[in-house]
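Hi U.,

Before I forget, here's the chain from the pilot set. I'm dumping it here mostly so it's searchable later in email.
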Amino acid sequence: MHHALPTRFCLIRHGETDWNTERRIQGHLDRPLNARGLAQARDVARHLSARHRFDAIYSSDLTRTRQTAEPAAHALGLPARPHPALRERHYGRLQGLTYAEIAERHPQDHQRLKARQPDFTPEGGESLNALAARVREALTGFADRHPGGTVLVVTHGGVLDVAHRLASGAALSTPRDFDLPNAAFNWLRYAHGEWQLESWADTRHLADALDEL
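Structure:
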């Protein structure tokens, strides 16, 4: 379905966790926000409720995203609907490890991860191709459900990486040349089956934010 009316998206990566500061891969492991992450979630809610109106809020069903979405949902008077398709990439046996630990214990995995091989599937995890397919399906589904609307999506760095590439046309395998800070605002527009970038990595509402690994 391609609607004439554009749908606007504000995509937000969850607030900071202790594992973010340790550069440790979280994937589907369920980690809570740290104190700074909780403060970022409050900053997000304060800014969005003062300046924007939304038709729906969708969130990954992991704790760090739900904790980020809750203050905004409360301030905007909308439920934050949990959606498993908005989860981070599943990194399988690499979850819970830092990049240094992966390089040491699984050197081949580390090489393939660094090279962004789209078909590389970590043992027990999912490939970039699989992640991209579920993200595209989820976001396009939200656009179809809210033609002409504005949708808030609280999710993860890997999902935002895919969304940026959907809009920019960059291949999954190309090195990332854009930032993915915790709790930043990333605005996309979807119309006539096409994604467009409006603005990216806006952190002016935050005290400070770490970039995705």
